[in-house]
Design goal:
Length: 422
């Protein structure tokens, strides 16, 4: 009986199996080692000697972007939250903490020690739908910083970012100015918080208009918080989703385990592989839930937990695709083993695991949207191509398997008719 055969793994020699396992284990250990002990800044954006890049007639640094929900109304007077929660309960905000700007010594030495405001750095917070209110775009030119010509028209002040305020919301976009004093090399931004009272996607830019400050570096951090935690608005529903999926996998696992025990005598090797996929899915969903829960509580994503979640996700996807492929080939149905093609199937599975692992690590530990097109293509294209290979191989194998089943069915009908005539 095929259920007593040793299965897919035994179609490949011991040396081949060991090599495949070494590749998977080594790759996983490297991924986990790279992420061990670190954090990825998410809703807490940290800046460490970050520089400004030229943009039109300005120098700017993208300080972050998050989806934020509007602050909730304060709780009723009869509710008394703990002292730790009073300042955060239901609040949505962007907070600037320990922000400092350091300009080059050469630039500072050119200034008069007794002079005030010898350099300006502006922090601009703008909602995505109002980004066109930053700068002035003419037919053949674009400017972010005010020029003497525009200042003469009364549109702005020379050396500042051009902002056209909305009449309905005159305080937006927000502008926070930090000045260098005298010949100081460092300027500290005043600790401040911007309350968010409208749901939307918000961007933070640090902008310099003075060319003498183009080599200025930025240090510090900003904290972005939603009413219910640090999860960005676009990610907030995912914590609930992964929690529900964890329960769903738990129920599925219990049902499958009961059925597995009842039909123990008829279990084939394929059923063990299905059990492994369910177990991987259950572990993956639980890890993602705890990862998002921790993210929501602290504002940071521990690279260790995230890497483990990504690894289990990549393993589950790879094993599930390999399982569908071997079933479509007729394994456990019309053939007891896969003979000489096992190595090809396992190689495709390992390649898909590595490509998926790399893509998801970039997606969850970085921001693939901030990468240029070529770099994005480098991570996305291998996954797409390998998925296409899986799909083509699955459907072509399924077609051949169905043909074999049809032939076997016709043979059985012929034998029945032949025996009946006898």
């Amino acid at each position: 009986m095929w259920g007593r055969d040793k299965g897919i793994g035994y179609d490949l020699g011991r040396r081949g199996r060991n090599n495949v396992m070494k590749i998977i284990i080594t790759y996983t250990i490297i991924s986990i080692f790279l992420g061990k002990g670190g954090h990825v800044n998410a809703s807490i954006h940290e800046y460490m000697n970050d520089g400004f890049i030229p943009r039109f007639n300005s120098f700017f640094f993208h300080g972050g972007s998050e989806g934020l929900f509007a602050s909730k109304p304060p709780p009723p007077h009869h509710q008394h939250p703990s002292s730790d929660d009073k300042s955060l309960n239901g609040k949505s905000f962007i907070r600037f903490e320990s922000i400092t700007f350091r300009r080059p010594k050469e630039s500072a030495s050119k200034q008069n020690a007794m002079q005030q405001r010898t350099g300006l750095v502006e922090a601009i917070v703008v909602e995505v739908k109002d980004r066109d209110k930053i700068g002035k775009t003419a037919l053949h030119s674009s400017t972010i910083c005010c020029t003497p010509e525009l200042a003469k028209e009364g549109l702005c002040k020379v050396g500042e970012v051009i902002i056209r305020h909305d009449p309905d919301k005159p305080e937006w976009p927000k502008r926070i100015q930090t000045f260098f004093e005298g010949n100081d090399e460092e300027a500290k931004m005043v600790l401040g918080t911007i309350d968010i009272n409208a749901t939307g996607m918000y961007y933070l830019y640090f902008v310099i208009c003075d060319p003498q400050l183009q080599d200025t570096v930025l240090n510090g951090r900003t904290v972005w918080r939603n009413p219910d935690g640090y999860l960005p608005g676009k990610m907030a529903p995912l914590m609930t989703f992964f929690g529900l999926m964890s329960l769903a996998y738990l129920v599925l696992g219990l049902v499958w385990f009961i059925k597995f025990l009842k039909c123990w005598k008829d279990v084939i090797q394929l059923h063990y592989h299905i059990t492994a996929v369910i177990g991987l899915g259950m572990t993956e969903m639980a890890l993602w839930y705890f990862e998002y829960s921790n993210f929501n509580s602290t504002g940071k994503r521990p690279m260790g937990i995230t890497t483990w979640a990504v690894t289990f996700s990549a393993v589950k996807k790879s094993v599930a695709r390999v399982l569908i492929l071997v079933v479509s080939m007729g394994y456990g149905v019309v053939r007891p083993t896969l003979a000489g093609i096992t190595s090809k199937v396992l190689l495709l599975g390992v390649l898909f695991f590595m490509a998926t692992q790399a893509l998801e690590l970039v997606q969850h530990l970085g921001n693939i949207n901030d990468l240029n097109g070529k770099v994005q293509l480098f991570f996305v294209l291998p996954v797409v191509l390998l998925d296409a290979v899986f799909i083509f191989w699955i459907f072509s194998s399924l077609s051949k398997t169905l043909e074999k089943l049809q032939v076997q069915k016709n043979c059985c009908i012929f034998i029945v008719h032949f025996l009946a005539q006898q």
